[in-house]
Design goal:
It is built from 5 helices and 15 strands. The protein is of the alpha+beta class. The protein has a domain at 173-383: Clam (outer membrane lipoprotein receptor (LolB), chain A). The longest helix is centred in the N-terminal third of the chain and has 41 residues, at 3-43. The relative contact order is 0.16.
Length: 389
């Protein structure tokens, strides 16, 4: 092979490589022009999404109405047919009561279990004039002839009426809450609570357990339970139970057929009003009122509440809008308060409802007369589909 032919062959190879390179460059340039717009669209960052809490205009505050009426006890038993009154007998010597109700403890709580017993539950209201009301339904020894027949024939007091509210019940959910308590002497305790709200639209069930977590177990200090129906006035309890550490379980019955609220620990009886609640259902009834019409909070909210052994009307008022820092983030809430009512209940009860979270109660606080403070704040909410179970 001569040098000329070798160089000629090399020139052809170089020319072919150059042509191939130019062809690749043109092809890549053409494809880039065609695919460029699609690629830039695909990688274009999506606009940021603003996360905003639901804020509603606060209703205009209306003038406060008269103080809520006192709920007087009904007669212990239904009226019976008149009976002949026996001749008066000498009054017997007073005998000690077979069952004495323990006096409420006062002062500082001495241990964490005792300190946490008051968590998540308002104190028992003290009904004024309870002894006088009970004595009023009994005939005095020196009553005039015929007064017993007249008294037995009188019907029980007509049920008192409170304002009726529009309601829209929140969906079923499970709640985990953090509990903190500061005793009157400054001692601080902490605990946890689980709250359950279940409804299928016709029936409901509420449960709450509060206590402290130990190394290998959990000690429940307070267990509340309520179940009943749903009617036009909202939550309609039938039975409410309360179990505190070291005490027997108590029950409050809402006898709708008889129109009475009765208790397992005593023989007291109160008229059953439409919209009456128990301690476990009050926060959810308040949420249902807000969901139905926020303007209802422009006036006082009066709710008859059956407690462990008494019943009284709780009056709530709207304090305003507040933001809470929680483990779920910053939550916009409506703050409602039940101030102390002299002669009836001495504690203050505060409830924070979240309009952007189905009006669920996200914080509840109880301030006792001695200054002890108990607060439970939401840490987790799980919507549930097991309504009514």
């Amino acid at each position: 092979m001569t040098i000329v032919s070798f160089l000629s062959r090399r020139r052809r190879v170089l020319a072919l490589c150059a042509a191939t390179a130019v062809l690749h460059f043109v092809t890549i340039d053409w494809l880039g022009a065609r695919l460029g717009p699609q690629q830039s669209t695909a990688v274009r960052p999506a606009p940021s999404v603003m996360q905003a809490q639901l804020r509603l205009a606060l209703p205009k505050r209306s003038a406060s109405s008269e103080p809520p009426p006192e709920v007087k006890q009904l007669d212990k038993a239904a009226p019976k047919a008149p009976q002949a009154r026996p001749a008066p007998r000498p009054a017997p010597m007073p005998q000690p009561s077979a069952v004495a109700e323990p006096a409420p403890a006062s002062g500082a709580l001495s241990d964490p279990l005792a300190g946490l017993e008051a968590l998540a539950a308002p104190p028992e209201p003290v009904q004024p004039g309870a002894a006088a009301a009970q004595a009023a339904v009994q005939s005095p020894p020196d009553a005039a002839p015929g007064s017993a027949d007249k008294q037995a024939a009188e019907p029980p007091p007509a049920p008192l009426s409170t304002r009726r509210y529009k309601v829209d019940l929140p969906p079923s959910a499970e709640f985990e809450m953090e509990l903190k308590r500061t005793d009157a002497n400054g001692t601080k305790w902490s605990g946890v609570a689980h709250m359950s709200w279940q409804t299928d639209g016709s029936k409901y069930k509420v449960g709450m357990e509060a206590g402290i977590s130990m190394l290998v177990t959990r000690v429940n200090l307070l267990v509340l339970g309520s179940e009943g129906e749903i009617d036009d006035a909202g939550i309609a309890p039938l039975r409410f139970t309360e179990k505190r550490r070291g005490r027997a379980q108590t029950a409050t019955h809402f006898a709708r057929g008889d129109g009475r609220i009765t208790f397992s620990v005593n023989e007291r009886s109160y008229p059953l009003m439409a919209g009456a609640q128990d301690k476990a259902t009050v926060p959810f009834q308040l949420g249902a009122i807000g969901r139905a019409d926020v303007n209802q909070f422009g006036g006082d909210i009066d709710i008859l509440v059956g407690d462990e052994k008494d019943a009284s009307i709780y009056r709530f008022l709207l304090v305003g809008e507040e933001e809470l820092d929680t483990q779920l983030g910053r939550i916009v809430t409506w703050h409602l308060a039940r101030p102390p009512k002299p002669g009836s209940y001495s504690a203050r009860l505060d409830v924070w409802l979240a309009p952007g979270m189905n009006w669920f109660p996200v914080q509840i606080r109880n301030t006792e007369a001695n200054g002890a403070l108990t607060t439970q704040t939401i840490t987790k909410i799980t919507l549930s589909g097991n309504a009514g179970k």
